[in-house]
Task: structure prediction
Amino acid sequence: MRFKQSLLVLAISGALTACGGSSSDSPNDNTSGENNNDDTSITTTSVVSEGVITGFGSVYVNGQRYRSENAEIAVGNSPAADEAQLKVGMVVTVAASASDDGEDPDAQQIRYEEHLQGPVSFIDREAEQIEVLGQTILFDDLTEFDETDIETLSVGDFIEVSGYINDEGSFYATLVELETEETEIKLKGEIANLDTDAQTFSLAELTIDYSAAEYEDMTADDLADGLFVKVEGDDFDGDTLTLTASSIENKEDNDIDNDAEEVTIAGIVKDYDSESGVFSVNRYQFALTDDTEFDDGSLDTLANGVIVKVEGRFESEQLIAEEIEFKATDARSKTEGQVTDLNADNETFVIDNTTFSVTPETQYEDESGLDERSFTFDDIALNDWLKVISRQDDQGNTIALKVKRIDQEDREGEVKGRVSDVTAEGMTIANVTVGFNENTEFEGEDDNISVERFIELVQSNPAVIVEVEGEYDGDTLIAAKVEVETVGGQDGDDDDDDSTGKAEFEGEIESIEGDSVFVNGNELRFSQDTEFELNDEEVDLQTFYDALEVGVVIEIEGVWVDQSYIKVTEAELETNDEE
Result:
């Protein structure tokens, strides 16, 4: 049995149940959402919300806590899942009934379905991109990694991804989960290049062979260019990017009926037409009105590619945008430390002498030994160790976007933010004291730089963001690597070589042409100055070059030159040789 009952039907039925709903409870046969028994009146509203899970203790989505004890929960193809299978970072759709009695909405249904699942073919850590099934997956500090992280993730790993579709053919990941057991490929998208003779069509960059497919909510005759479908299959040819589909499901119809009273959708703006005032988020179309309100932005901020949360209502069959909240995409800070102060009334906490404010949409997770699933602000205690991703609002307040409780020994030794009090001996980032020594490496936008050049860059541009990796010595973080990030058009270097910055990625060798190696369309060039590592041993250029083969995974760091090729500074290769 598939999980097919309308979200709205469940939301409305829950609303009716919550307010009595039957004639025996109401002499006036009141089914409008009001209960007039004992001269009291409780109005209920059918609610549908789609967005990222940010915490538990029931389920938090789009800044709202939904009581989930009575909810039907579906995860992927399982219509009878439970809340324990839900994870922070999943994009879910919730159908609920909300009442005006001050209680949290009661969820009738919570549904999660991955956007895609398949093998990693390319990882660009510098550009914060992963490629899976020919699709570009964007990630950042707010992306949740489960059973892996971006440093340990490798080409060939099988992952499940949840997040938001971008208009440019890319995808922003809110969750990347390592799959160690399931190997079935899954993805959703719009059909293109349908060829009924060859029985193939395109889905993003993939060719789908549907000759042996079974169908759900459709037949083969319903296939058409533009139809939104979900495709699953086990037989995948990575060389030709061809998937032989075992099943194809029609996902064209949205589950939100136009009788829903309140609709909240979070995602990326697409197909925005400023003349008509119409735009889409997660395939739901909204229309602007003169009464549309904006939070953390204005009408001028609305554009394709921005992440928003839209609250709306239906008029006839059109969703009307009542309020649009713009999600922060500015430079973020990253720090970790011990809680020294708490204020429950203001919902603030202090670490490293910085006061952090939380919001209803702050994301929480407990990675400490306590492993508390329902970890929220209320569970933070003095002396807890926290890892925090934050930003500053227009009033200068530090807003915690993501809070993880950790054990002291699990600190990563990573901080990111603006610099103050920089000298040749160290600096301060996010009120964390950072020390330099003779082994500290400084990286500008294009190459390694001296500590003197680093100081010059920071002092000439106070807005520049710096990321540090190192190890703690008491309360001081001794930096192993200090990296200058581009901010506000500054490139962190004033060389006039038209380079586009650093490169750091991992992928399969596509071709070898003379002295050049091509990976994912990028040309790599080596030199005697390149540091080579083959099967965990340092080797010279010739030994390394002799080991190169098409199909072998190579990991590199380097610098773009003239926007045309990468001068490789470090290269690592693992082969199957047992020598």
